[in-house]
Amino acid sequence: MYDLNNLAKMSTLGANAPETMSAFVAFDKAALADGAIPRKYKELMALAVACTTQCPYCIDIHAKSARGLGTSENEIAEAVLVAAALRAGGAVTHGTHAMK
Question: What integer is the mean pLDDT of 13-42?
Fold first, then answer.
């Protein structure tokens, strides 16, 4: 199901919904641009979110982008484990609803 070649089909989305796709691309670019938070850290946040949403496309894209910005393997590993801790923490705190 997940094949990075599918990303080439993004142009098909753009051809069929050009205004919406342009707006999405502009928003994505603006959200990840350097600002108060440097782009390197935004890519690490994006990688962590991608791990929690379990999107293999986003994991691949943001890990590569982070590495291209000088992110170390240690930083990537820590971002992944922060995501895992938050996801596990969500399960634990939601589990309190099961306790009667």
Answer: 97
